[in-house]
Amino acid sequence: MIRLTSLRFTSWRLRSYESTGGGEVDVLAASDRFVYSRWQIQCKNTKKVDVDVLAKEIGMTFVTGADVVMIVTTGEFTRDAFQYASRMMDVSRYYMILLQKNDLEAIKEDKTNIIKILDKQARKIFAKKELQMTDNEIDEIETEGDNITHQYFDEAE
Fold first, then answer.
1. Using CB atoms within 10 A of its CB, is residue 35 exposed (0-12), middle (13-18) or buried (19+)?
2. Which of 1, 65, 68, 96 is the most exposed place for a label (fewest CB within 10 A)?
3. Which residues contact residue 51 at a Cβ distance below 8 angstroms, ignoring those fewer than 6 apart?
4. Are 75 and 44 in contact (CB under 8 A)?
5. The Cα angle at residue 17 between residues 26 and 71, in degrees rounded to 5
6. How many of the other CB atoms lie within 10 Å of CB of 39?
7. How far apart are the first and last CA of the chain?
8. Beta bridge partners of 37
9. With contact defined as beta carbons under 8 Å apart, do 41 and 11 qualify?
């Protein structure tokens, strides 16, 4: 995923007290495209990922210096986890990316889907932060866009 998103790998799992204060981070990466950003990536192989995991990762950013936290799970995030991520991004400078089972399946099917997934998440945050749109307004626009896209391709066939 790091290569697919044009990130630069910086280090593998950090666990030492000197590096993380006793916490754990699976991967650190950085971007030098458009602006510098440091990414903290945590992978979970569990059925459900709850808000505690997200809160811990945000806490780790004070040690790692990350701007972006990506949590990837082979399972799913709880509703509370999604709500926490949304609220945290509303009130802080951090950007949190949550990738779960269905996202991984889409990426496995076509590796370029990672760009579509990340772009969609970024557009949602932009709409909330810069256009002051609500989640409902964003969802409504996405649904309309999906309908238009499907209609266009159905007619083309």
1. exposed
2. 65
3. 78, 80, 81, 83, 84
4. yes
5. 20
6. 23
7. 32
8. 31
9. no
Supply the pTM of this predicted model: 0.74
Query: Across 20-151, where does the E strand assignment appear?
Result: 27-31, 37-44, 48-49, 68-73, 76-77, 95-99
Unique residue bearing structure tokens 């602006």:
35
Sorted by where each starts, the structural domains of the chain and their CATH numbers stand as 8-125 (3.40.1350.10)
What are the tens digits of pLDDT across the range 48-68? 999 999 999 999 998 888 999
CA distance 37 to 146: 31
- CA distance readout (Å), 125 to 62, 75, 118, 133: 22, 23, 11, 9
Single-letter code of the amino acid located at 29:
A
